[in-house]
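When time allows, look over one protein, given below as sequence and tokens. The question is which stretches look regular and which look disordered:
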Amino acid sequence: MAPPVTQPAHNPEKPPAEHWPAVVVGAGVAGATVACLLAAAGLRVLLVEAKRFPRDKVCGACLNRRALAALAHAGLEPVLSTLGGAPTTHLDLRAAGRALSVPTPEGLALTRRTLDTALLAEAQRRGVAVRQGVRAAVLPTTASGYRPVRLTPDEGEPTVVAAAVVIAADGLGAPSVSGLPDFRPRAEQASRIGAGATLADESIPNLQSGSVLMAVGPAGYVGVVRCEQGKVNAAAAFDARPAARSSLGELALATLRAAGVPAADSVARAPWRGVRRLTQAAGRVAGERLLVVGDSAGYVEPFTGEGMACAAEDALRAAPLAARAATGWEPAIDADWTGYCTASRRDRQRDIRRLAWLLRRPWATRAAITAAAAWPAVGGRLAHRICTP
């Protein structure tokens, strides 16, 4: 893939079309939540989203205890309560015919199509201005005391708006800041690629209510969970080479069956979608009048919902800093956000990286299943550590 082209600086002689106290890029969990919080604090907020909602998204669909606690703290629990999410109570790990069931703190399974649409609607209800089908490119700062953002709609001419602060929350690869060399994320070359689909109800005939089923095979792993209205959400991480040789659906079906999970042929025929390499490190996460949050600020292969938990927690921490920045940028804001991201990702991702290492090696997964079956408290403690605040 060719490297992103560095965006030219906005011409300061041409005034921006609009001025906003805060511009949020990306209407996923992180972006919608921080927009809601800033609007509740009394700021005028513009939320820009490249897609048009409702839309599907590759994601494991699991809101663990950490994510639920953060969203509740943001005042969004009433929104979640209306969506009919399916409770999750345990993780079922399968590898080479071996099985282990580990209790987890109760979570909630919701497809991103339902969750993100509801959060976007709540942001609009709180007074956030929303523009969908618009790609955003954050430009270098000018001497005029604002951060320019180029907005390119699906139809129409690009315009440049000015923001007292920009929150980049547009997910893996952080496309909105990829034109700023210092902020450009770096993907680990050995990282797996992501894939996901909504499966037919009969695709996994023995999928239990409350179960987050994870099947581990030689090429990667597939997670499956029942969500709202009985929908079956599947998310996977595959090695790049096998994914290049066969379709994502065929690879998912082979992985499930290799792990001993009964799966129908319809798994291979589902409309699977792929995403870029999952494990990425951000360049910078803060600069003058710019904060990078959520997956855009760094991501490790997923495991039972920590991606959405980090997104919601980032929003809680970023919102007060963004509100400060809207009244005047201070270098301390950069230092605060950079320090938080460094510490939180180091602590939270340590266990995830260990699990990712384990899930890359079916022999190690089989050994871990055997050990955890002999000492159940070990698996329970690990699940509690990952899933709770």
Q: What stands out?
A: Residues 1-10 have pLDDT under 50 and may be disordered. The longest strand covers residues 98-109. The radius of gyration is 21 Å. Residues 93 and 100 are 5 Å apart (CA to CA).
